[in-house]
């Protein structure tokens, strides 16, 4: 399944990709501020994919970040920009896992308290990761709305600064540095394939493309059970789903963030969906052909290329967004 928005998409959407916080200079400054915190992850060629697609295909290996996912870029950027007197009181977020680990890690670097509100269905490895990094875990329901409400109450009651997973231009600016690195390492890139949860990463990629190489094709990938961006592209606005479900636990918000959608509007016109079987095949392929341990959320881009959901005509980069997966579960997936 593919959703597209044509060149005549409603002008009333209004893209925020040209916000001063997301300008070329601002994105470059954000990248410099992340030096020594986030890793400049490599682009790894995948001959097995290239031979199938008849074009060069590279993996952007964000699973190599200190917290095993791209989220450190946005979390550290946002926390470091909170005024010091407010930051000293501590921070709080709501997350299914990777953003929570990134907030805990960044807070540790800055010597402050971090509280992470997580869902009951959060993978045990991600809950343990938050705790190992010094974060305090609070369990609250399973929906993003439930987690947000719990975090909002604690923020107000305890004076903790909120660090949203994606509804923040500072977070999006941090994620944009991933796009900057892709464009620097592969200036000839034709297509960038991006996994989509709440939309912070793809909004950051859109901002970087808008600032440095307008016209680069960006393709979003979601699970069949969580087509948030597809519905938003069809409606021209963020649309809340009744339910989301997938083994790609990092891609399950009920709606694309309103701020990310405003940023990506005009730059992202395609959203494809992959089945659960295709996601598992993506995990297996990355392990067998690239010796890369991706979590299901990070393997959806490879799954989309393998399954033919994304047709490519030039150099292509698939973002592997994370590698935080329970070892036992991973062995079940790859065997």
Q: How would you describe the oligomerization state of the chains in this entry? A: single chain
* Biggest beta sheet summary: 7 strands, mixed
Structural class: alpha/beta
Order of helices and strands: EHEHEHHEHEHEHEHEHEHHEHHEH
Descriptive account of the structure:
The chain has 335 residues and is an alpha/beta fold. The chain folds into two domains: 235 residues, Rossmann fold; 80 residues, 3-Layer(aba) Sandwich (Rossmann fold), CATH 3.40.50.1100. Helices cover 44% and strands 14% of the residues. The protein has 14 helices and eleven strands. It has a seven-stranded mixed sheet, with helices on both faces. A four-stranded parallel sheet has the order 6-5-4-7, with helices on both faces. Helix 6 links the parallel strand 5 and strand 6. The longest helix is centred in the middle third of the chain and has 17 residues. The radius of gyration is 18 Å and the shape is globular. It starts with a strand and ends with a helix.
Structure characteristics:
335 residues, alpha/beta, Rossmann fold, 2 domains, seven-stranded mixed beta sheet, four-stranded parallel beta sheet, 11 strands, 44% helix, globular, disordered N terminus
Give the SSE layout.
Elements: E1 2-4, H1 24-33, E2 43-45, H2 47-53, E3 57-61, H3 72-80, H4 84-87, E4 91-94, H5 98-110, E5 114-118, H6 124-132, E6 136-139, H7 144-158, E7 161-162, H8 169-185, E8 191-195, H9 200-212, E9 217-223, H10 228-235, H11 258-264, E10 270-274, H12 276-290, H13 296-306, E11 316-320, H14 327-334
Parallel strand pairs: 3-11, 4-5, 4-7, 5-6, 8-9, 8-11, 9-10
Antiparallel strand pairs: 1-10, 2-3
Helix pairs in contact: 1-8, 3-5, 3-8, 5-6, 8-9, 9-11, 12-13
